[in-house]
Amino acid sequence: MMEFRVPRILVFSDWFLPGFRGGGPIRSLANLVELVDAEFDIVTRSTDLHSDVPYPDIQEGVWIPWNQRTRVMYLSEQHMQPGRIRMLLQDREYDWFYLNSLFSPRFTLMPLQVLRDRGWSQKVILAPRGMLKPGALSVKSWKKKVFLFIASRTNHFGFRGIRWHATNEAEGHEIQSAFGTVQVSVAPNLPHIPAQPISHPPKPEGELRLVCIARVSPEKGILEGIRFLRDAGLGKGVTLDIYGTRQNVAYLQSCEEMARQVAGAHISFHGELEPALISGVLSEAHFFYLATWGENYGHAIIEALLHGVPVIISDRTPWKNLYDASAGWSLPLDTSAFTAVLRQAASLNGTAYAALCAGAFSYGSGHALNPAALAASQRLFALHGGGQEDI
Predict the structure, then answer these.
(1) Residues 363-391: pLDDT tens digits?
(2) pTM for the whole thing?
(3) Cβ(240)–Cβ(210) below 8 Å
(4) CA distance 129 to 220
(5) The pLDDT of residue 310
(6) Do domains 8-190+370-380 and 208-368 have the same CATH topology?
(7) Residue by residue, what is the 3-state secondary structure of the chain?
(8) Terminal CA-to-CA distance of the chain, rounded, Å?
């Protein structure tokens, strides 16, 4: 009788907990290793995004237990070298190698080339994490276009023969558009489930409290969101609190200038937000607000819904049919659509708003507790007959 064992996966990721500035990819990986029945060894940076200060009280270069099935090794950038990767491959036998990024020189391209040289490309799973979406590609576009041109036509980076992890069919088609006929497995992201429900602020007619949790970067549509609010002409009683890493100083200044044009509204830029504080911030808002250019998943969106906070977002995310579910609105990125909904949201009374809160929680829970999503992630790493080509 064959002895049952869980798969063993070596993960390379630019960032992992306790880091949080890297946003969605950190949350996606953290939820994956928490919920999937497998053994994970994670190799990651010893610093957070845009920081050169190592995490406190964490020893570098050794395996640190994370949960019963997960270990993490934190390395400085200069210590992430091909020799270190080869040592890791000698220390333990792995069933799969999981790369949690696309463009990372140290934590994707370097291990990918080492694994290619070993002849192990067929054991590699790469998650691009939304980096092939048009909105993401539009930032530093020429560098990314050159990279994709070379990567898709040569095997210089080692992309041939690997398997790709798409979190939805749209991302699967984006992968194939960039790299041609490649093996793609679809497994949705797994959300964090809040420990307990939150209370909601009163909702008088004419008052509108909006919160946005996203990097202050062009692809997140912060500037468009403020402009839509300006054009809605709502006046007093409106607040917009923006939480997120100030990634682009020039863009932040443009957003601040636009905010000064929103008559009567109070718009604040609070900087980055630690994950432990998200529930408290959501509990002070009527709506989560994000005019994003495109989201592969949108952890902040589903977290708001799971907290019973309805959302006003663009239609460039996986979260569709929000209006039909009384959970909010997903809208085309045009002024008329957003201004009409912002005016409608401001005019809601407490009774109508409470119905939206209930709808948001129901919608979020229905997606988060879907067993098919976890089963798909489990199949992604299956030892026998798993990881089938889905697209």
Answers:
(1) 998 888 788 888 999 999 987 655 555 66
(2) 0.83
(3) yes
(4) 15
(5) 97
(6) yes
(7) CCCCCCCEEEEEECCCCCCCCCCHHHHHHHHHHHHCCCEEEEEEECECCCCCCECCCCCCCCEEEEECCEEEEEECHHHCCHHHHHHHHHHCCCCEEEECCCCCHHHHHHHHHHHHHCCCHHHEEECCCCCCCHHHHCCCHHHHHHHHHHHHHCCCCCCCCCEEEECCHHHHHHHHHHHCCCEEEECCCCCCCCCCCCCCCCCCCCCEEEEEECCCCHHHCHHHHHHHHHHHCCCCCEEEEEECCCCCHHHHHHHHHHHCCCCCCEEEEEECCCHHHHHHHHCCCCEEEECCCCCCCCHHHHHHHHCCCCEEEECCCCCCCCCCCCCEEEECCCHHHHHHHHHHHHHCCHHHHHHHHHHHHHHHHHHHCCHHHHHHHHHHCCCCCCCCCCC
(8) 34
The pLDDT tens digits of the residues spanning 324-366 come to 999 999 999 999 999 999 999 999 999 999 999 999 999 998 8
- What pLDDT was estimated at residue 154? 75
Topology (CATH level 3) of domain 208-368: Rossmann fold (3.40.50)
Stretch among 37-51, 182-196, 224-238, 326-340 having the lowest mean pLDDT: 182-196
* Type of residue found at 270: H
The pLDDT value recorded for residue 317 is 93
Evaluate whether the domain defined by 8-190+370-380 bears CATH number 3.40.50.2000. yes
Look at residue 242 and tell me whether its pLDDT is greater than 60.
yes
Supply angle C-alpha 316, 319, 325, rounded to 5: 130
What does the block give as tokens for 25? 């990819």
